[in-house]
Amino acid sequence: MRKLIAGSLLAAVAMFIFGAVYWSSPVLQAGARDVADDAAAQSILRQAFPETGLYWVPGNDLYAEDAELYTRLHEAGPVARINITHSPGAPMGANTFIFGFLHEWVVCFLIGLLLVFVSPALTSYGARVGFVTFVGLTMAVFVDLGAVIWWRMPLAFQLVDGLYNVVAWMLAGLVLARFVPARDATAVA
């Protein structure tokens, strides 16, 4: 267990450093558009969405009340899923980084635990790295490409997000595979 905790901690450090570099690059703008007047847009958002929360336009409540109107508005567009935060604090404040790192550590611990379970079948370092990378690829295909289908997110951004996920998981795999050695299948039974 100590090896798994240490390995997952170091894997999270690798993911964290990679994420800081990746998301600080211009790649963040893939599929994004600029707003002509940020202050005016914030004023409109504040009026239209008075509370912190997730909003749908047209709203899901409208579908329950008047499905025909909902369908007409949806077909006419624009449609949106908007996450509004009225008291966000500093951009990328310390808490964001602390909770982000803890989140990555938990994820690395969980994937490390999965790696422990399947390690009898993964007899080489490369196989263990490949397994973790493949799990990351599977997650990226499901979540990131799913967002294009289900939520109509821009393909360019979701591809950038998916690439981040695959590479981050590969880095975690490079570290975790050193801390989770192959085990004899008969010792597990």
Which labels suit this protein?
8 helices, elongated, disordered C terminus
Describe the model:
The protein is mainly α. The protein is 69% helix and 5% strand. It has a two-stranded antiparallel ribbon. The two termini are 19 Å apart. Residues 185-189 have low confidence and may be disordered.
What's the layout of helices and strands?
Elements: H1 2-24, H2 38-48, E1 53-57, H3 60-65, H4 67-76, E2 80-84, H5 94-118, H6 125-150, H7 155-179, H8 185-188
Antiparallel strand pairs: 1-2
What is the H/E string? HHEHHEHHHH
**Got a strand count?**
2
Structural class: mainly alpha
Using only CA atoms, what is the Rg? 21 Å
Taking strands numbered 1, 2, ... along the chain, how are they ordered across the largest sheet? 1-2
The fraction of residues assigned to DSSP E strands is 5-15%
Shape designation: elongated
Sheet with the most strands, sense and barrel status: 2 strands, antiparallel
Question: End-to-end span in angstroms?
Answer: 19 Å
Tally of alpha and pi helices: 8
Question: Helicity, in percent?
Answer: 55-70%
| Unreliable segments of 5+ consecutive residues | 185-189
Instruction: Write down the overall mean pLDDT.
Output: 91
